[in-house]
Each structure stands twice: as C-alpha cells, then as structure tokens.
Request: fold
Amino acid sequence: MSTRKRRTSDSFPEWYNPEFPNPEECVIGSLLDLCRDKHPRKVFARFEGDVQWTYEDVWFKVRRWAAGLQNIGISADDTVLVWLPNRPEIINAWFSINYIGAIYVPVNTAYRGDVLSHVIENSGARLLIAHHDLISRLTDIDLGQLELVISVGKPPEISLSIPIKDTGNLEGDSEKVSPSKEIMPWDTAAIIYTSGTTGPSKGVKCSYFHFYNVGTLAVGFIDPSERCFINMPLFHIGAAGGVFGSLVRHASIGIVDGFSTTEFWNQLRELDCAVMCGMVGSVVAFLSKRPPSDEDKNNPLRRVVVAPVNSQVIALAKRHDFEYFTGFGMTEAPMPLISEVGTILQGGYCGRPRDGIECRVVDENDIEVPQGNVGELIIRSDYAWSMNHGYVNNAQATVEAWKNGWFHTGDAFTCDKENRFFFVDRLKDAIRRRGENISSHEVEMEVLQFPDVLDVAAIPIPAEEDEDEVMIVVQSKLDQTIDPVVLIEFLIPRMAHFMVPRYIRFMDELPKTPTNKVQKKLLRDEGLTEDTWDREALGIVLKRVRLD
Reply:
C-alpha cells in the first residue's frame, strides 16, 4: 500500500480521512486481530440482559464460528444469509463470515413470502443462519440454492426440503482457521438489500472500504473510551456503520433490539453510550413529544447524526444537551453530503460535499441545472471502491444507476451559491398539483408542527389531466383525536395554497419498514379509503390570492 497523504487543516469533516486505507484499517479480520492484540480486556460490546464481550471474547468467538463455517464448506467469496435480530449472534455471524473472506448478507427480519424468496434466490447463498422463530416462514417458498439452515435457538419441528441444524455445527477449532485468500479493501464484504418499498429489493454490493466510509463518517469522531448506541436493526447500513466505525476507532458498542420511545433514554444511561449512529425517520418526533422531565439532561449522549434538521431536532438537542449534525446518505453511497456540527439551517439542508466526493444537481439528461433549480443529485468519488460497486445479479439496475460514470441517487435536490445542498424529495414521491411541484417532505414538516400529530406521510392521489391531489396520512398522539378542519385551518397560513392537503386519513400506526421508514407505496396503493376525509366535499376550497 502507498503512504497516506498528509491531511490539510480544512479537511471536511475533520474526523474523516477519505484516502484509500490499508487492509488493517478496514478489513474485519485484520481489525479484530489488531484490537485483540492491543487491548484484549477492553469491552467491545454490551448487549441487553447485562451481556458483554471483551475484544478477546469476540475474537475467540468469531474464530470458532469462522472455523465452523469452513468445516461446512464456506470459503472466500461465498455468500451467507444472516436472518437475526439485534442480539450477540448477529455480530458473531457477521464477523465470522468476513473473517474468512466470505460475504455477509443480512436479511430484514420482517421479510416473508415472495420478498423473502427473492432475497434468498438473488443472493445465491447456500447457507442461512436464522433465528429459530423465523424459520417457519421458509415453508412453501422457493429456497433458491440454499443447502442448509443453521438455527439460532432450538430448531423448530418443521419439515423443509433442506436440513435444519443447531449452532453447534458452527463451533470449530479457533486454532484452525485461516482465510483461503488475502482479504483486501476492495473485496466485497456485504450485500445489503434496500428496503424494497417501491419494488423488489436490490442487493447493494459493499466493499470493506465502503463499510469503512459509512462508519468513519457517521461515528468517526468517537473516542476509543466511548461507546456507540445501536438501536437500528443491523441489517440496516446505518447500524452496521455504527458497529464498523466503532471497531475502526477501537471503541465500544451498545446494542438493543429496536427503538423504544419510553426506554430510549434509560437504555442510553444503562449502556453508557456517548455516541449514536443516527436519529432517523420518526425517532425525533416520538422523542420530542414525550413530557418534559427533570432527568432530561441526565444522559451520556454527546453527539449524533440526525436527518432531517428541523425545529424539533434543535429543541430536542437543547432539551437533552447533545450535539448533532446532519447529512445525506443511502445504502449505495456513504454520506456524500455532511453538515457542520450544530447546524441550524432547515428546509431540507443536508450539508456540503465531503472530502473525496463530487456532487451535481442535474436534469433528466445529466445536464447541470441552474443554481437554485430542482434536479436529481448525482455523485462520484475520487477513490475507487468507496461507494457501492453495483447490484448483485442485476446488471440493468447497475447500468441505470451508474449512467455516465456518476451514481444517480433518485433524489431531488437544490444547490445554492454557497455549495450547500438541500433535499427536496424522492423523485418518485414528488407531487405535482395545479402546475406546481410539491415536496412531500415539506408538507410533512409543516403537519408535524401541529401539537397532536405524532407522525405523517404525504402522498399523491391521481387527479385529472395527469396531476395529483395532496393526501396526508396522520398518526395522532396517544389518546388524542384530531379534528381535520382544525388541522387544515392550522396549515392554511403555513403553506402555499396548492400544498394544503385535500385529503386526510387517520391511522393508528403508519406502515413502516424495520428501519422506521414509512412504506408510502402501501399508502399510495390503498389510495382513497372509506375513512378518508375530503375538505372539498365540505366546501373548503382554496385558491391563489390574486395580487393587484
């Protein structure tokens, strides 16, 4: 490997080095060996139930399972499916797979039926390591090339066309494990499947350098003495990045199985976590609407990445005394945009291009749009293998995404004269009404200001002449009933007339992916339901104010 360049004083962000790393900086096996040699007794992971692993513990456990994987025929570049919740075994499985140069393929624990079958077949995996309660979902679906299922927990008494064995079959001799090839930063470490909310899930091929970027951007500022809180599911790139970044910095992780509004701050205190891998989706809204407490500032949280920045984020950070920054990232591209710590810019602000990345806002022909105009964000990196290198077994999607040598995000953005980038909407979620393009994101941000709204999704409802009407699907705070007329009256002075929703539907809970993203496709497919409220049916019609 070449000698690393000297970093300049104005590197952005200051905790991140974009240059191509040496293997020991970003390859799981090399990192584990190094950490075990340097500080074997240091705690690497704390789990729920007062379980903790030192670096020596995790090194030993990983080598035993790595040897077991080799004993059952898994070698470098094989894909292995891992279908587990946030518990110790998922860390063991992931690291063991990568330790021998095989490819880690985590599976969304909500998957079942055709979606599950698609991931199994698309991955080409011969081995699945699964939680015992999930294995029954494998009956009556196509198992692709699977040859064996390892059950974490007592194997269920069901019949499959392939064997189901317990984790004893993964216990090998830790002294007899060795990768069959030298593992390098450009090798594929994982295949992470996208949420699949708008179509079949795509398997994103991620190198070790890709994972290194995710982790060192999101939590690269972590001190080796600190611990990173992981409550997003570990099949999500953000959660995996929190683990990877903590390992790179020889720090620690605290893992819980999912987000809990009532337990969130208690979990942070119990696990003593100073850093968090991300407050995304509706997490901020849920936490913001908890009653104030004298214990609000009594927590160890120092810094967290949030998305998006809004008045709730600013107030929550002040109330609980933590730092925050924002950015834009996706499974395919580790945070090409990142903000300054403590930014107060709102309106979809995602920051500036980080070191090593170029960003442009373009039209449908990849021609850069005038400053301030809406277009698609496209990106490319100065360093090979630092982003995704395609979709597994999906050449067409890979070519479309990497058109003209730039990765196309599918997201609408604007850019100002200060080279600051602002998220507008997912291109597929944009709403067009009366000749105006409407950001569903902006509609949602305004609706969330209503005191009794807990969560909301804005979606288009097809209307005449290829245009849309705006619909919001609202989840109210517990035990609160919202009068739609009062909500509309609240919104009218806060947004343009064409943005004010025509339709309102109330739901006890919005449909979510396990990564806490609203499944808008399900809501769009359902369209107008019998319980949908229509303001125009009540004679509430809004028109443009004509100026003299």
